[in-house]
Amino acid sequence: MQETLNYIQENKQRYIDELFELLKIASISADPAYKNEVLKCAEMCAQHLKNAGADAVEVCQTKGYPIVYGEKILDKNLPTVLVYGHYDVQPPDPLELWKKPPFEPYIEKTEIHPDGAIFARGSADDKGQFFMHIKAFEAMMKTNTLPCNVKFIIEGEEEVGSVSLGDFVNENKEKLSCDCILISDTGLYSKDQPTVTTGLRGLSYMEVEVEGPGRDLHSGLYGGAVPNPIHVLSRMIAQLIDENGRIAIDGFYDNVLELSAEERAEMAKLKDDQEEFKKSISLKGVEGEEGFTTLERTSIRPTLDCNGIWGGYTGEGAKTVIPSKAFAKISMRLVPYQTPDEITEKFTKYFEKIAPDNVKIKVTPHHGGMPYVLPSDTKEFVAAKKAMETAFGKEVLPYRSGGSIPITAMFEQVLGAKSVLMGFGLDSDAIHSPNEHYGLFNFYKGIESIPLFFENYAKM
Ligand code: BES
Ligand code: MN
Ligand code: MN
């Protein structure tokens, strides 16, 4: 192991230089204008896998963006770890809030990252994180210390719902067969408290439309006598959550797995500092479901949020209009054993129920995803915990995160293997936001933890 760690140490600077090249590519999967950049990024990932020593490297075409594959099979009798990551990134807007352009990476020190952090879209989500795996793999290959088989799949549509990956996994069960899946696309609980992520929430995402009059109206001639769709929609949104912070949709909590008192006590070992939490997001006061802590509200409880709302006149100056339509995007984070199909149906029924008779409504579901839990008595969890404890020199706790990676549940269902989420980001890294960054300390700790994971897992 020391040899591998030495190799990493000696090649530290080159790793950063190479990552910078990857971060310069604007692989925005949501925006078709960036198609060539996304494709270029896939090619660069394939080249990195080859250079690191992977065999059978392939840029696999799909109906959408390609999936990059590579493997190193040492011996069929050894266990196989499948590494998953995504090379696509979120759109960087609003651009004016970035200190420097999002695809021109640079390093700067911050309060939380005194050793410096790499600023660029995708630095933490997920280029900087899957790149740790390629570099750890390179180190194991170059020092002849890879202890088991490894396969890589790096996709280009995670940020738009992994549309093609589902089919790809179903059609390539043999190719992707493995004993476990290793993913770095999550974060640590905090800078001082390293964690292995043992759960992710699911997702159900809806778009709603309320139509009042058949055309936009002069608010002087018609105002006061017709339903204004913006008002109606606002009233409907207000009825989605009750005064206790509970989601009012009929049957919403039916399948929610309630944690035992012991499980909640175990969770409470993670320091839930309210002052720090508020300060970190410049917030005056928290709110949420009554009877649960902030940590519980953001991890083991399901939630509902309006993500966008529009309609009517939003341009310069004033326009006296009653719009014909109003719209909103509403998402729900799910926990075991809720399913996106069930929740989509319950949401739609409820939304129809609370709609007044004098408007038309339309509810359109977008992509969703299942929640995921990795029990802490699995060898995947134990191997990751031990690896990170060695790398960080601290006790590592389990932590259920509030984010979603829908493919984890699908991997389990189709490949019959557990995913272990060994992510190294921090909530303050501003993923999906302007000035996304990834700490150099986190990047290197990740690269060190990975060979340790392989070593532990191969022995189990
Ligand atoms: N890497 C994130 C998910 C994440 C981040 C989980 C931090 C836990 C901690 C992923 O790229 C992501 O953004 N997922 C989306 C869902 C997806 C279906 C668009 C999300 O969680 O909103
Ligand atoms: Mn991600
Ligand atoms: Mn993301």
Description:
By secondary structure, the protein is an alpha+beta fold. The chain is built from 13 helices and 18 strands. The strands form 5 sheets. Strands 1-2-6-3-7-17 form a 6-stranded mixed sheet, with helices on both faces. Strands 11-13-9-14 form a 4-stranded antiparallel sheet, covered by helices on one side. Strands 4-5-18 form a 3-stranded antiparallel sheet. The longest helix is centred in the last third of the chain and has 20 residues, at 440-459. It is globular, with a radius of gyration of 23 Å. It starts with a helix and ends with a helix. The model has no long low-confidence stretch (mean pLDDT 97). Residues 125-126, 158-159, 161, 185-187, 200, 203, 367, 369, 401, 403-406 line the site of ligand BES. InterPro entries: Bact_exopeptidase_dim_dom, Cyt/Met_Dipeptidase, Peptidase_M20, Peptidase_M20_dimer. Keywords: Coiled coil, Hydrolase, Metal-binding, Protease. Residues 253-280 form a coiled coil.
